[in-house]
Amino acid sequence: MPPPQTFHVKSFGCQMNVYDGERMAELMAADGLVAVDADQADLVVLNTCHIRERATEKVYSDIGRIRKVAGKAGRTPMIAVAGCVAQAEGEEIVARAKVDVVVGPQAYHQLPTLVAKAAKGAPAIDTDMPLLTKFGALPARRRSGPSAFLTVQEGCDKFCTYCVVPYTRGAEVSRPFTAIVEEAQALVDAGAREITLLGQNVNAWSDGARGLHDLICALDRVPGLARVRYTTSHPNDMTQGLIDAHRDVEGLMPFLHLPVQAGSDRVLRAMNRHHTRDSYLRLLDRVRAVRPDIALSGDFIVGFPGETEAEFAETLSLVEAVGYAQAFSFKYSPRAGTPAATLAEQVAPEVMDERLQRLQAALGRDQIAFNQASVGRTCTVLIERPGKRPGQMLGKSPWLQSVHLVTDAGIGDLVEVELVSAGPVSMGGVAAARLAA
């Protein structure tokens, strides 16, 4: 197989996978390859996620689809499987699907070397998990949109009984303070106005005596960086310093994604979450005390093994007590190798379906209520892309709401906007300059 000249990276799953996909694309570009659409690429990289059920089977389906489309065009692209499915499946992917490259999420800095090896005719596999050596091997950031992701921490030590992350991403490891600040400056120089700090447990980030709040304070002083966000957090790592940062740091946006997963203490213990319903609610009270306008987001799992109707009702009552601005909710899906997968009393699929519908109805009710309560506010919107209508632009409010408005502002501009209408997932706005006129 001749060495590839063109490539395409397709990422699935979390925001960290989006970041990893961007970095893999930068690696390929630095190696001289040109980014093209998937159906034209000599090399297709599937950057996979292993969190949801049937993730592995979806990868195999994608591989078959790529080969089918390419075969009709008389092409045989090289296929690389990266990410968490690659880490979990390893050589099995080569044996079953005959792919050319398999590379785990801690080894993708080796992708150009693996591709060169595969071009010589032998499958190339690297699922080693060194401690963050990949970041020093990645090329400098040279391109960015107005909003950019920046991974600061990887891995997880919490071992929730339903989760594969400790096995596919490894133990919690933090990137050095100086390296993060340098990458943030490079992203700003490349056009970013907002940076979202990423980690499996981002608020567990530390470097010596520094915690995440210290890092956020440092980034707030980077010239040209207007906004900072972070995700995903664990309740047990929410320090008072980080809470106070939501009051004290002007550039830290009033948005907090803090997964709870369930409202029942018995279910939380079975999940190995190490927080209770009451400790979670008291934590949110402390956050709201310093930042009353904060928008709260969360994650929920319904149908965890053994969950009763009464315990699910406790989740619904927690949702009502909090009033989330946004939230993600999923049916429990057993992941091979996790303790919960072997528990008795797996909840029937039809029961999970019905509970998920009720939970999502409650979360949707609260999301639109939060949006409706925002009507009349004037806030700064970061313009991110054109809308569908002439003159329309789309951006994000400080509370991570999508806002559409007619304006002559360009991508990356910050515009003072009055929020004038609310929908289930977006807001309508009018530029303050137009209102003044």
Key descriptive features of the protein:
37% helix, 437 residues, 15 helices, six-stranded parallel beta sheet, alpha/beta, Rossmann fold, pyruvate-formate lyase- activating enzyme, OB fold (Dihydrolipoamide Acetyltransferase, E2P)
Structural write-up:
The protein has 437 residues and is α/β, with parallel strands linked by helices. It folds into three domains: 6-126, Methylthiotransferase, N-terminal domain (Rossmann fold); 140-373, tm_1862 like domain (pyruvate-formate lyase- activating enzyme), CATH 3.80.30.20; 378-436, Nucleic acid-binding proteins (OB fold (Dihydrolipoamide Acetyltransferase, E2P), Beta Barrel), CATH 2.40.50.140. Helix content is 37%, strand content 23%. It has helices at 15-30, 55-72, 84-89, 91-97, 111-119, 133-137, 165-168, 177-189, 212-220, 240-248, 265-271, 277-290, 309-322, 349-374, 432-436, and strands at residues 6-11, 34-35, 43-48, 78-83, 101-103, 124-126, 147-151, 153-154, 173-174, 194-198, 206-207, 210-211, 227-231, 255-257, 295-302, 326-331, 378-386, 392-396, 402-406, 414-422, 426-431. A six-stranded parallel β-sheet has the order 2-1-3-4-5-6, sandwiched between helices. It is globular.
